[in-house]
TrEMBL record:
Signal peptide: 1-23
Lineage top rank: taxon: Bacteria
Protein name: Secreted protein
Signal found in the keyword field: yes
Keywords: Signal
Length: 116
């Protein structure tokens, strides 16, 4: 089945009009004052892995307290992974977190949560 030139031209014109009509639809706008950028947050952490031991120092340079937790994933399937209790790093404060595995450390990460 072949389309005539007239049908093809009409189809193309309809597609073009629909595309332009969609672009002309007004979009919802949100006032700028409702979405102010969030204040800087989060302690900077340095992680050191020495054999099976993990030591982390987190320094919070911001005025809002940060609750940091250490998460250690061990490389061996039978070794127990650990998650520390949250420790509050107040403004301009440095905290130390430690963890370990029986054998090799697989992965280490820090989670941050706003205090309060």
């Amino acid at each position: 089945m072949r389309l005539s030139r007239r049908t093809a031209s009409l189809s193309l014109a309809v597609a073009l009009v629909l595309t332009l009509a969609y672009e002309a639809v007004p979009h919802a706008r949100v006032p700028a004052d409702e979405h102010e950028p969030a204040a800087p947050f989060g302690a900077a952490c340095r992680i050191r892995v020495t054999g099976s031991k993990v030591t982390v120092y987190c320094h919070n340079p911001y005025p809002e307290a940060d609750r940091v937790s250490l998460h250690v994933e061990c490389a061996r399937w039978w070794d127990i992974d650990t998650d520390s209790s949250p420790v509050e790093a107040g403004p301009a404060q440095t905290v130390r977190l430690t963890g370990r595995c029986w054998k090799e450390v697989g992965d280490v990460w820090i989670s941050h949560r706003r205090a309060g």
